[in-house]
Specification:
The complex is a heterodimer of chains A (about 270) and B (about 800). Helix content of chain A is about 30%, strand content about 25%. Chain A has about 270 residues and is of the alpha+beta class. Chain A folds into three domains: about 45 residues, Uridine Diphospho-n-acetylenolpyruvylglucosamine Reductase, domain 2, CATH 3.30.43.10; about 110 residues, 2-Layer Sandwich (Uridine Diphospho-n-acetylenolpyruvylglucosamine Reductase, domain 3); about 100 residues, Enolase-like, domain 1, CATH 3.30.390.50. Chain A has a five-stranded antiparallel beta sheet. The longest helix of chain A is centred in the last third of the chain and has 19 residues. The mean pLDDT of chain A is about 95. In chain B, strands 3-5-1-12-9-10-11 form a seven-stranded mixed beta sheet, sandwiched between helices. In chain B, helix 10 packs across helix 11, helix 10 runs parallel beside helix 19 and helix 16 crosses helix 17. Chain B is α+β, with helices and mostly antiparallel strands. Chain B has three domains: about 210 residues, Alpha-Beta Complex (Aldehyde Oxidoreductase, domain 3); about 325 residues, Aldehyde oxidase/xanthine dehydrogenase, molybdopterin binding domain (Aldehyde Oxidoreductase, domain 4), CATH 3.30.365.10; about 150 residues, Aldehyde Oxidoreductase, domain 4 (2-Layer Sandwich). The mean pLDDT of chain B is about 95. Chain B contains 20 helices and 28 strands. The chains are: A alpha+beta (about 270), B alpha+beta (about 800). Chains A and B meet through helix 11 of A and helix 20 of B.
Chain lengths: ~270, ~800
């Protein structure tokens, strides 16, 4: 690890100010991607801005038909939250599938989606549930937030404060793990909320998380696994590596989508 | 059996310190004034080192020295060696190329050290290392053993034309070929035995200190055999005379073979410590372990098994190409030869066996012994062939095995080994019952109903442990004998120190060795201390590998205990004023036969040191005896493992749903520890079969260089095992021990792959059978179920 300056602001304003003054600064919001990269000397941020001391950034609140999760809320807390378990059980379950206990007790939802790892679980939940990402500056629809592998719509000096999830009628997440990293080799999140039907895929896209419109259209006719029978996604544009070719990933998307719908409808 | 004696499941004495963070590993050693060393490693698999500019680095803060391979070469030290001579079938010696601790002139694998930076702190050393400019001329690389000897392959070492180290063989080619020709049926298979990265929990580490006053060098080193390390570093590298070099292997966190070998890092630490007059310390980072710890396996094999009309095996013919990597590691030559081919008879009577092994250099990390070392590879060949043979012949796999089992002992195989004892049918039978083999058909139908494929696979393995009778090892080319030493030091109060040449790095010797001694002397296990891992304390020892600590190490302790008891009886006779012949030692008490006169163990121990009551002109004071034990034969643990799998045809994912292991390890000292060894071994074997995939790209970059890509077995990859034993005592050592440390890893891969191929209905799949690989097989065979 190279040496760096460590900041621990106590207000969001201070954090934003530090970020705007130091263009190469990185936000520390769990650090389970950033710190290993720094230890390997593959990243060299001169400044780290730790958000853990800022009040009000962590916490879970339900108001009406939406659930707001503070950016610094740890995966373990989302997983264990009775509020989340009641409102969107699949979200609690998904949080419990991230990494291992150590990761889940440090990693945060804001850190995960700002990093937008193409194999991470939370981006699939955000896109699949049609979440809104709320920053110190604005509200961004998940559809506009994830712009590509490790890239997001966040501007310099913009900090995620919370994520707002509309409560779906039915939802499920199927994750097929990479045997080594246990990240999603492919993860498929399906949700139905009124006429809004979403199928979001993580782990497979070479540009990160994406929606499968053809599956969504089919499910609009009838939200049942049968609606997806025979449907496939093309392998073009999907990731291929030693763990799974693009063709294998395409195949898994169809399998997992059917399973997720089956789970969502309780079959 | 006493509560802590032989056969008792005594809790491990050492575990309290390990699980409370009180262990003392090499990295815990810190010496006054120590410096950190950082190894600059070649990022290229094959490259000429044209120039190394160290000027800028040498001027960095806190940097006393930067050394290159050229500077190391100036001191004219010896090379690292492979200590086991293997000869080609034409009689020529193996082509061992020089292996300098720091490469000069040419780097031969990604990870080959080309320079070192020494600094006050590791961070400073890393900063300075970034300023070292190495000018490489990248050369074409070869990583695939099957292509290494091909015409036009890049030549790695001048000493080894065609990258070939030896073309070795064993057995009779003519009779084997004739039997194949006359066979009723021949089963043919080709395998890749996948390369594995060892991944001990504690990374390798070394800290070296030079005492200018005495001229003594001390090396703390995560080693499985500190005495052998000292011998090689003294006698072959020529670092210092043996009496001026002390090697200490303190607590060591796992080895699996990878810490047997003498590596460049400890040599360089010693050299640098003396050079700069400060202790020098190195601990591998995990990514460094991936590219420097000797890997395991990596065979490409073609094999044929011949059967007669009755399903009797008539011959086995095997050709294996073994990847040795970029340099010959310490025991690399012996693993794919003497530790492999002599096991090819398996549990069977096979009248004719012929095996050829070609060993080749490639631009990859050196390959050497890894848990099982040659025996898993042999078992995989034999057990896959007989299982497939059974399927092809339409015979139940257990029945075909039974038909061919060795049934009377001793049995001379056609590949050198003399099996001393065993009861293969007993372990098979017990395993079939425990596993409910009869219920398999029903379970398979139930899986089918749920859209899953179920398969069952057997592995009736045999292996050879307790290496080895020294004379035989010598005939086979070993550079050392393979005996073990022990010393029993009785304190005046009756407590005991056992000095052993065995080395514990997870095996639990502090418990099992204490059980043996406590049982024998009638004292508590807490009164027995096991001392190992320090060349200044233990006179010499061969270390721990190949499941030899019980069969060989404990036998040496028994011999020393015999001597202690004999002397103690003499002393007791004087204390009890009786004839020596009348003294009986039992349950910690010396009794005069036929009387109620007795002396406790502690009284006799004290008497030995007080020395008031016996003539010291006839009996020396004190109570301390040593022994060297040389085995008269290898030991032959054997057993039957059954693996049952369920495959999801939609994803290709394999779940192990059942595992039964019935092993014959001879006498068991501590069943809890033995069961743990079986569990760990199976886990590693399952890792090889399902998960662990060492992938090099064509340029020689290790693609699977971290846990992001290299899958280690985890608890949820494994079922609950059913583990049981049968016992035939080993006749060649005093305790009847065979050894248990590697059996699981030896048996498991074949059991898993037999189960998977049984489920898939095709034999064409290599390890690791990842979901993607299984799915691809299903796609090709058109069995990919309902999936889209």
């Amino acid at each position: 690890m190279y040496s760096f300056t460590f900041h621990r602001p106590e207000t969001l304003r201070q954090a934003a100010s530090l970020l705007s003054k130091n263009a190469d600064a990185k936000i520390l919001a769990g650090g389970h991607m950033l710190l290993p990269t720094m230890k390997l000397r593959l990243a060299n941020p001169p400044q780290l801005i730790d958000l853990s001391r800022i009040e009000g950034l962590a916490g879970i609140q339900q108001s009406g038909r939406s659930l707001a999760i503070g950016a610094m809320t740890r995966h373990a807390d989302v997983h264990a939250s009775p509020v989340v378990q009641q409102a969107i059980p699949v979200l609690a379950k998904l949080a419990g599938m991230i990494g291992d206990p150590a990761v889940r007790h440090m990693g945060t939802i804001g850190g995960s989606i700002a990093n937008n790892d193409p194999s991470a679980d939370y981006p699939a939940a955000c896109l699949g549930l049609g979440a809104t990402i709320i920053t110190n500056k604005r509200r961004i629809a998940a559809d506009d937030f994830f712009t590509g592998m490790f890239s997001t719509a966040l501007e310099p000096a913009e900090i995620i404060t919370k994520v707002s999830f509309p409560v779906p009628k039915k939802a499920a997440y199927q994750k097929f793990r990479n045997q080594a990293s246990r990240y999603a080799l492919v993860g498929v999140f399906v949700a139905k909320r009124g006429s809004d039907i979403r199928v979001a895929v993580t782990g497979a896209g070479s540009n990160g998380v994406f929606r499968v419109k053809a599956f969504e259209e089919a499910l609009k006719k009838r939200f049942a696994p049968k609606s997806l029978e025979g449907l496939t996604v093309p392998a073009t544009g999907l990731n291929g590596d030693i763990h799974g070719s693009a063709e294998y990933r395409a195949h898994l998307i169809a399998v997992l989508a059917r399973r997720a719908v089956a789970e969502a409808v309780g079959k | 059996m006493s509560a802590t004696g032989i056969g008792a499941a005594v809790r491990r004495k050492e575990d309290h310190r390990f699980i409370t963070g009180k262990g003392h590993y090499t990295d815990d050693v810190n010496r006054p004034g120590q410096a950190a060393i950082y190894f600059i490693r070649s990022p290229h698999a094959h490259a000429k080192i044209k120039k190394i500019d160290t000027k800028a680095a040498a001027g960095m803060p806190g940097v006393p020295a930067v050394f290159t391979g050229a500077q190391f070469a100036e001191d004219k030290l010896g090379n690292l060696i492979c200590g086991w001579a293997v000869f080609s079938k034409d009689g020529s010696p193996m082509k061992m190329a020089p292996h300098a601790a720091i490469a000069a002139g040419k780097a031969n694998y990604v990870g080959d050290a080309v320079a070192v930076v020494i600094a006050d702190t590791l961070a400073q050393a890393k900063d300075a290392a970034e300023k070292v400019v190495v000018d490489y001329e990248v050369l074409p690389a070869v990583v695939d053993p099957a292509k290494a000897a091909a015409p036009g392959a890049p030549l790695i070492h001048e000493a080894a034309p065609n990258n070939t180290i030896y073309n070795w063989h064993i057995g009779d080619a003519d009779t084997t070929n004739a039997a194949l020709k006359n066979a009723k049926h021949v089963t043919k298979l080709e395998f890749i035995n996948n390369r594995l990265v060892p991944n001990a929990m504690e990374p390798r580490a070394a800290i070296a200190e030079y005492d200018a006053g005495s001229g003594n060098l001390t090396l703390w080193n995560a080693s499985q055999n500190p005495h052998v390390a000292r011998l090689v570093i003294a006698a072959f590298v020529g670092m210092a005379p043996e009496n001026k070099l002390r090697v200490i292997a303190p607590d060591v966190g796992g080895g699996f073979g990878s810490k047997i070998f003498i590596y460049p890092e400890e040599v360089v630490c010693l050299w640098a410590a003396r050079k700069i007059g400060r202790p020098v310390k190195w601990t591998a980072e995990r990514s460094e372990s991936f590219i420097t710890d000797a890997h395991g396996r990596d065979h490409v094999t073609k094999a044929q098994m011949a059967f007669d009309g009755e399903g009797k095996i008539t011959a086995l013919k095997v050709h294996t190409t073994a990847n040795i990597g970029a340099y010959m590691s310490t025991f690399s030559s012996a693993i794919p030869t003497f530790f492999y081919a002599p096991l090819l008879s398996g549990q069977y009577q096979i009248p004719h066996i012929y095996c050829e092994v070609d060993a080749v250099y490639t631009n990859t990390v050196p390959v050497d012994a890894y848990r099982g070392a040659g025996r898993p590879e042999a078992t995989f060949v034999v057990e896959r062939l007989i299982e497939v043979g059974a399927r092809e012949l339409g015979v139940e796999p257990p029945a075909l095995r039974r038909r061919n089992f060795v049934k009377s002992f001793p049995y001379q195989t056609s590949v050198a080994f003399l099996y001393d004892t065993g009861d293969f049918d007993a372990s098979l039978q017990k395993a079939l019952e425990l596993h409910d083999y009869k219920g398999f058909g029903k379970r398979k139908r139930e899986s089918e109903r749920l859209g899953k494929l179920r398969g069952i696979g057997f592995s009736t393995y045999i292996e050879a442990c307790g290496a080895a009778p020294s004379a035989i090892a010598g005939q086979l080319g070993a550079g050392v004998g393979l005996w073990e030493s022990a010393e029993v030091r009785v304190n005046p109060t009756g407590s005991v120190e056992i000095l052993t040449g065995s080395h514990a790095h997870g095996q639990g010797h502090e418990t099992t060795f204490a059980q043996l001694v406590a049982d024998r002397l009638g004292i508590s296990v807490d009164q027995v201390n096991i001392v190992h891992g320090d060349t200044d304390k233990v006179q010499f020892g061969m270390g721990t590998y190949g499941s030899r600590s019980g069969a060989v190490g404990m036998s040496a302790i028994v011999k020393a205990l015999d001597k202690v008891e004999a002397k103690a009886k003499k002393i007791a006779a004087h204390l009890l004023e009786a004839a020596e012949a009348d003294i009986v030692f039992k349950d910690g008490k010396f009794t005069v036969a036929g009387t109620d006169k007795s002396a406790a163990w502690g009284e006799v121990a004290l008497g030995a040191y007080v020395a008031h009551k016996f003539p010291t002109s006839e009996i020396e004071p004190g109570l301390k005896e040593g022994a060297f034990y040389d085995p008269t034969n290898f030991t032959f643990p054997a057993g039957c493992h059954i693996c049952e799998v369920e495959i999801d045809p939609d994803t290709g994912a394999t779940t192990i749903v059942g595992w039964t292991a019935v092993d014959d390890f001879g006498t068991v000292i501590n069943p809890m520890i033995v069961e743990g060894q079986v569990h760990g071994g199976i886990a590693q074997g399952v890792g090889q079969a399902l998960l662990e995939h060492t992938v090099y790209d064509d340029k020689g970059q290790l693609v699977t260089g971290s846990y992001m890509d290299y899958a280690m077995p985890r608890a949820d990859n494994l079922p609950s095992f059913k583990v049981d034993m049968t016992v035939t005592k080993c006749p060649s050592n005093p305790l009847g021990i065979k050894g248990c440390g590697e059996a699981g890893a030896i048996a498991a891969p074949a059991a898993v792959m037999n189960a998977i191929t049984n489920a898939l209905g095709t034999e064409v799949i290599d390890m690791p059978a990842t979901p993607q690989a299984v799915w691809a097989v299903l796609q090709r065979s058109g069995k990919a179920a309902r999936a889209a």
